[in-house]
Amino acid sequence: MRRSFRFLLRPTAKQAAALAQCLEDHRQLYNAAIEHRRTAYRKAGVTVRYGDQSGELKHIRADDPDGQGRWSFSSQQATLRRLDKAFAAFFARVKAGRTPGFPRFKGRGRFGTVEWPKDGDGCRWDSQPGHPSVTFVRLQGVGHVRVHRHRPVRGRVKTISVKREGNRWYVVLSCDDVPAEPLPAAGAVAGIDLGVAALVTTSDGVHVANPRHLAATADRLAAAQRDLARKKRGSTRRLKEVARIAALCGKVGRQRVDYAHKVANALVRGYDVIVHEELRIANMTRSASGTVEAPGRNVAAKSGLNRGILDAGWGVFLTILSHKAESAGRELIAVNPAGTSRTCARCGHCVRENRVTQAEFRCQACGHAAHADVNAAINILRAGLALRRAAEAA
User: Where would I find the Transposase putative helix-turn-helix domain in this sequence (predicted)?
Assistant: First the structure.
């Protein structure tokens, strides 16, 4: 099993400057590779691929020994592969008839990760194993950087990435052969309904609160954005405000991930089978239909709903739940959510009028009354168990 481990880096001021320059040089390499592909196709009709650009790296490094030549050859190849994947995804969207987004040049604030594809090739995890209390990672051109390792690393380190988020630096390890950690059988199954009022509602009637981390920081974030709007572009004060906003957003993201880990861990420990909705979050959070001249109906309400869904972090939660379930040997089943919130869990009658309010469910046929989210979670569980039985029968 493959897993990722992320740790905070503690670089010195000199090392932080070197890391920033490493990111900048890789960003310039990425942008130059895009320009190379565009120019070659526009002027000569030639398609440039990864192999062609990787072959040019030797000459680029020789011509710029104090710039591109300082960094790991393998990390630069990884940056070129990253661009190649972006072009492959673009052409796949074109072929599928979807709206394509052509790979874009990366601005200074939109390139935050450098990857070393192999431990020992330009990088080394735990580069000073004899140190009694501190872990270091060695990066070519940067040196031995201290790592705040808050948990043990399991498996074999495959790739090492360095990521910048605001003023913080992180190292991300992708490890192979990570042993599973199966939990003892819990003897229970559950369906879960994701929502905004409550993050998770189980078929047992348990409601897990939604802490609304973004809403709690909204006033401070709005004040920081107003201050940013008054700052002159390119000024030192503007850079400080940008860093302030990044710090606030980063804190919200960390709070959201931490809470998702705690809720997912509780579910995995309590249930052998967990059934959830297969949500299309990108479709659910699209802007209200209409144009600038005719913006449509309930635009403000739709905007608020989208903000609430994104603040709840359903996608992050489901990803974490999937990883924890796999590691613990639990079964996770995704079902189509269509009709689960309108169908009576007692008699199966499905009409829109069954859902009286956001929280109240009352069947128009049999009179069954329940909390709407609990009723939906029961329907989700039944649909998941039906899929499971069908799969076993096949």
Answer: 1-43
